[in-house]
Amino acid sequence: MTTAESSAMETSVPASAEAADPRALTLENVERALDELRPYLMADGGNVEVVEMDGPIVKVRLQGACGSCPSSTMTLKMGIERKLREAIPEVSEVVQVL
Q1: Which partner for 20 in 14, 38, 66, 68 could form a disulfide, CB atoms 3.0-4.6 Å apart?
Q2: What span, in angstroms and rounded, lies between the C-alpha atoms of 5 and 68?
């Protein structure tokens, strides 16, 4: 085996299978999924932050205009929760923390 082949093999094997799995329930993957939604929330003067992950339950805080919007429950369940459950099947629920 040449040195180039050896290097290629080393870089193609992830250090941790969980870290390489974009569908695993990790803070990094949750943030990545939320990053896809943030431009839409920001366009309406809001944002979202992850407060805590309690097993399969992700606790978030809606910020800015989203925190006081009458449609925040709909945004949380039909937007944020739907996106997270689609991206990370292990997520069972998204809960708003005030």
Answers
A1: 14
A2: 57
* CA dihedral of 62, 64, 69, 71, whole degrees rounded to 10: -50
Q: Max alpha carbon distance in the chain (Å)?
A: 63
Judged by DSSP in three states, 63 sits in strand
**Tens-level pLDDT at each residue, the chain (98 residues):** 544 444 444 444 444 554 578 899 999 999 999 999 999 999 999 999 999 999 999 999 999 999 888 899 999 999 999 999 999 999 999 999 98
Q: Is the pTM of this model over 0.85?
A: no
Task: Output phi, psi for 65, to 5 deg.
Answer: -60, -30
